[in-house]
Amino acid sequence: MQENEISFFSRRTLLKGGLASAVSASMFTLPNKAFALNLINQGFENGVRELVPYPQKYPLLRITTRPVHLETPFSYFDQSLITPNKAVFVRYHHANHPLNIDENAHILSIKGNVSRPLKLSLEELKKRFNQVSFNVVLQCAGNGRALSSPRVPGAQLGNGSMACFTVTGVRLADVLKAAGVGANAKQIKYRGTDEPALPVTPAFIRSLDIKKALSDDVLIAWAMNGAPLPILNGFPIRLVVPGYFAPYWMKHLSEIEVINHEFDGWFAKEAYMVPDTVDNGIAPGAETKNKTPLRELKVRSFITNIETGNKIKLKNGELTIRGIAFDSGSGIRTVDFSADGGKNWTPANLGKSIGNYAFRPWSITLRNLKKGSIALMARATANSGETQPIVQPWNPGGYARNVIEVVNITLTS
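Predicted structure:
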């Protein structure tokens, strides 16, 4: 194997011995003692998941094997605002994803309604265009789907299909301008190197409006947290669309075509659609009369240091709560906190921002607490004015969950 080639099986011994042997051999640096067992209960019906090691990854929660779908244990989000590369979740649409890629041989084609079609290697991207880096949240469209009520079909995810990391790459706009975008261009459509297992299965091809494609923040990225992308996260290059859900972030990016019309492929017109209502919700079981593509992230917040079911011994009647919040890129204005199930709200303290597209830390110390059961809630409001709802709008795909989450705990003296 060449030095510049990353292989899915370059650490296949991790898969041979099973999880127990991998952990007992101390092959990973784990964030805390929660990983002493190989199962994690995510707190919903049928929510027990096995921790499984994959190449370039810590043991993650396995959702499916083919295609690979791995979720991040939630405890990572209390360790740092930046998710380690080895802990970032994995989601593929097709089982035939690349097993090894030579970065020197990988070519990105720019074609279609352009005056100068391009074929660019990774090295040419790095040398020809200005490089930029910033922090960004990546979130699966179905993050939290298993918490839908009533439940919906699809991968039953907890809230671990998200991550925050530093991306490095070049602006897609610079590459498209070098190719010379035609005056009547309407969208780009783009794809990677993963393929469907069956000929009848639609290829995973996505599209972006040309205005979004030419915005400053959309990147062709090759690095996460200063290191090459893990192969399961898109090595050698992926499209990064800050503020948009993960289906727009194409892994193993290989082709971009500028088109003069709206792309009508299956993943543009059928997949990742939500009801075209004010809150993208309908009554459970009702027919979805009109649909619209799911694009931008919704404002969210989480408590990260305490989980539902915890029994916590009070010290001097005090308890410190901390968490994270994010939105589609306007930034977080406030996080309010309730310790009585939403009857009363108190502003939490916002930590330093590491970028409007990134996780924003927050914390609050509760005082004069007494033993008993309490319901903790955090509610984020973005600079755009968007705030989290008290009731989650229901949609048949279980997409875009952003309800105020409730953490029920018991305090002891």
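Summary: The two ends are 60 Å apart (CA to CA).
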